[in-house]
Design goal:
Layout: H1 7-17, H2 19-46, H3 56-79, H4 88-121, H5 130-148, H6 151-154, E1 155-162, E2 167-174, H7 180-238, H8 253-321, H9 333-342, H10 351-358, H11 360-374
Length: about 375
């Protein structure tokens, strides 16, 4: 028979057991804050005139920063109060804002997916104007608020039973009792919401990738045909033209001079036209490459988001099936499953890393921000000679 312990001692024991998770959450907060603040600073001071394709990047960075600070801090507070969380109103409030900040990033990523679809798959249609983007952002925030409203009715302080010591505590988690209809409706709506978001993102980016792949194949074929035409033209210019009338060998010098002058003028006009056409093509090619690169960048960000949420969705499903899921965990199982429960925070952290890897301009401007912040200029004064 194990010795009895007090509620505070039990809470301290669980907190010590979750200390690796608390340290990881603190690292997540630090990295997410530094990375997203850097993105905001770069776009606020170095890239003010950035293209409209980058419109949502600083906005997403702002909401990612809020999410990683708030959600990470909330989970640290929860880990330190696993058995002594008795304030039901505080629990419901914390869960509501945690859900709201999380949903903000989700809906912004969904808007970005729609923007990339219109840019890549419907390039001839008018792109999103500033007013449309702002309206979409307000709708995203409103939808996040609506999706978070049911959370206080599903989460709250629940009884936490220690089978070994025979004591009861209180933790902030999913309610075991309450109205069955509310819990059922929430489960169905939450599952449908996850299904719709995931399916929509997969379909949208699937069509985008298919369009990019087809265009790259067409560009390769055009490049090959252009190279063949260039080779044929060069071969034709290098070969001498033999006149069919071989008996005529003398040509009037004046006529030859006039023809040469006319040909030179014509060639100059064609060259100027070709240079202008080449510059236009180069500009179009550069814009297309930027569009494709940003599309791949946002696709990777969305993929990381989807992958990071899979463990949490699975654990929420298990928690819904087994009401005593967290109570039955052993001391060795709790840290690992808690880490998987918190791993979705990673998608709020990795975005600045993805920006730096794919966006050369952002990487260069971020380096300038670092230099201005941490490398102070050396002010050297020459000696004053009397």
């Amino acid at each position: 028979m194990l010795n009895n312990i007090t509620l505070s001692e039990w809470n301290e024991d669980i907190t010590n057991n979750l200390m690796p998770n608390i340290v990881i959450l603190a690292v997540h907060i630090a990295l997410g804050t530094i990375g997203n603040v850097l993105v905001i600073l770069v776009y606020a001071f170095q890239m003010r005139g950035a293209s409209e394709e980058r419109y949502f990047i600083p906005i997403l960075a702002f909401f990612d920063m809020i999410a990683v600070i708030y959600v990470g801090g909330y989970y640290i507070f929860q880990s330190c109060n696993q058995t002594i969380f008795s304030n039901n109103i505080l629990c419901k409030t914390l869960v509501f804002f945690a859900g709201n900040t999380t949903y903000n990033s989700v809906f912004i990523l969904f808007i970005i997916a729609i923007q990339r679809y219109m840019k890549v798959c419907r390039p001839r249609k008018q792109p999103m104007s500033i007013s449309v983007k702002r309206t979409a952002l307000l709708l995203a925030l409103l939808m996040s608020l609506i999706c978070a409203l049911p959370l206080p009715f599903v989460f709250g302080t629940v009884s936490f039973h220690n089978i070994d010591f025979g004591i009861y505590g209180m933790r902030c988690g999913r309610l075991k009792d309450g109205h069955p209809l509310v819990r059922t409706v929430y489960s169905v709506v939450a599952g449908l919401f996850v299904f719709v978001i995931v399916t929509s993102l997969i379909v949208i980016y699937g069509r985008i990738i298919g369009t990019v792949f087809r265009r790259l194949q067409v560009n390769k074929k055009d490049l090959r045909s252009h190279e063949k035409r260039s080779e044929t033209t060069d071969r034709g210019e290098n070969n001498p033209v033999v006149d069919d009338f071989k008996g005529i060998e003398m040509v009037n010098i004046t006529d030859k001079t006039i023809k040469h002058s006319t040909a030179l003028q014509t060639r100059t006009n064609i060259t100027g036209h070709n240079i202008e056409s080449a510059a236009t093509k180069q500009r179009r090619t550069t814009n297309r490459r930027l569009t494709y690169k940003l599309t791949v960048m946002f696709f990777i960000i969305t993929t990381v988001f989807l992958l990071s949420y899979i463990p949490k969705v699975v654990l929420l499903f298990l928690e819904g099936i087994n009401e005593d899921f967290w109570e039955t965990l052993s001391a060795s199982q709790r840290p690992g499953l808690t880490f998987l429960y918190h791993i979705f925070i990673l998608h709020n952290i990795v975005n600045p890393i993805v920006y730096a890897f794919f966006d050369i301009e952002f990487r260069q401007e971020a380096a300038l921000v670092f230099k201005r912040l941490f490398i102070k200029p050396c002010i050297c004064s020459s000696e004053i000679q009397l």
